[in-house]
Design a protein that fits this description.
79% of the residues lie in helices and 0% in strands. The longest helix is centred in the last third of the chain and has 37 residues. The chain has one domain. It is flat and about 55 Å long.
Length: 94
């Protein structure tokens, strides 16, 4: 964990020191590195037999959690919408 925080702080320092210079290609390099990390993550998951066997259960749990979170957000937004419209007249402001 300290390694991750250390790298992040080093990146912040490098960005601060080079803020006046034009740095080209950083966005493309980040994109390529993210794709490489996703590929390596998939490779690691694919080579782990226990994880592959548990994937349907984990996927089901992830679906239930995401569906519950989405439904809760929709219901909260609907309740807030109704609460803010209470007391207003139709077609105008109160």
């Amino acid at each position: 964990m300290f390694t991750v925080i250390g790298f992040m702080l080093a990146g912040i320092a490098a960005g601060y020191l080079s803020r006046r210079r034009s740095v080209r290609g950083v966005s493309q390099a980040i994109t390529v590195l993210i794709w490489a990390l996703l590929f390596l993550l998939g490779w690691e998951v694919g080579s782990n037999r226990q994880l592959l066997e548990a994937l349907p259960r984990l996927g089901g749990e992830a679906f239930v959690l995401s569906a519950g979170g989405t439904l809760g957000s929709v219901l909260a937004a609907w309740a807030l919408w109704k609460a803010t419209l209470r007391g207003r007249k139709k077609g105008g402001r109160s």
